[in-house]
Amino acid sequence: MTTLDIQTPRVFMPLLGPARYKGAYGGRGSGKSHFFAELGVETALIKPGFRMVCVREVQKSLKESAKRLLEDKIRALGVERHFRVLDDRIVTPGNGLFLFQGMQDHTAESIKSLEGFDAAWVEEAQTMSGRSLEMLRPTIRAPGSELWFSWNPRRASDPVDELLRGITIPPGAAVVRANYNDNPFFPAELEEERLFDQKHKPDRYRHIWLGDYEPTALGAIWNRQMFQEYRRDETPAMKRIVVAVDPAVTNGDGSDYHGIVVCGLGEDGRGYVLDDMSRRGSPQQWAQSVVAAYDLHEADCIVIEVNQGGDMVRHTIESVRRGIRIEEVRATRGKHVRAEPISALYALGRVSHIGTYPELEEQMCLMTPAGYEGEGSPDRLDALVWGFTELFERINRPVRRQIKVERAEMSYTPGEY
Asked: Does residue 171 sit in helix, strand or coil?
């Protein structure tokens, strides 16, 4: 017989009893994921044959899954001999199973493969779409089966918040709010990060560390529903791909990022955000990242803005690779004016993000008709706007009009005017 000594933060105690729905939401460093990982290992030991699927809305690789965390918990609890860790799954006592999947990979038919599972743990549940939640809930139907959710809230309209924090929540649901101050194992390194954000990012602090809903600028020209509704996890056939760059003016620890965003125009006529490789660093470093993005995505060209340091930007990129194709664009209007035609494409459902880009999407939701409401420069957003301006060049092209004027005789009487 194996006796485990598991130290559980008191805030999670309501989640230890049986419940169809178990949810833990809150800010960074609360230990939500650690709790559910330990609960999964504990349950697998107590109930031989226990099967759990760990899901995210989009999972490009196992590195993005809970697999590593579960492996760490198995080792930390000293129960390695009871589990068999394979490349894509973990075999649990009694020939049970931990699987790791992305919900966007499933259809109404393929989801049926999970019908016999005892639990589903939804990580980053704030990104789960209504469609995925509707498919998952009735699929996990074994007697006594449970659905677990861990998430950092974004907005009240997210499906998981409407389900577990809305006006009417499922009967018997156990939901707790957990933050850093509820975690007795909160590390000193994170405490330094928390104090920094409290001082330097007061507008973001409550969302990041206290689990409040994410701030959005009043009247923002983008909203998160635009991203979520059309988000995809696979890149379709592309007609054109560009790497757009918006370099920062200075280089230092407190400088803005160099915006480096990869955009594409699909053969279906839709726009796609393929990557955000924005970074801080020296001119040589950001130029190397731009060329790396160009190679990685087999891009057609690099888009640069020439109003501010245009020659320098071109020279810096060509110092990494001479002869690389560069397209120059010139700003004739303010940032918010340039952004509005691109936001209109999103409103029309003509742009999709391949994956999730939190920093970029945050900047987009802080751009209003009056200007940018966030801190610093919207570097990532500026790069995105330049990229799509190149790909959808007609939206910024002047409209040519022809006016026919009939010739008329004019008479003039001296002294009339």
From this structure: coil
Contacts of 92 (CB under 8 A, 6+ apart): 44, 48, 49, 50, 51, 82, 83, 98
3-state secondary structure of 328: strand
**Sheet of 96-102: strands edge to edge?**
84-85, 90-92, 96-102, 51-56, 119-122, 146-151, 21-25, 174-177
Neighbouring-strand partners of residue 273: 263, 353
Show the tokens assigned to 100.
Answer: 């790791």
- Check: pTM over 0.90? Answer yes or no: no
Listed residue (225, 239, 229) closest to 270, CA to CA:
239
Residue 60 above 90 pLDDT?
A: no
| 88-139: pLDDT as tens digits | 999 999 999 999 998 888 887 888 899 999 999 999 999 999 999 999 999 9
Q: Which two tokens stand for residue 393?
A: 């060049």
Cα angle 374-385-400, degrees, rounded to a multiple of 5: 130
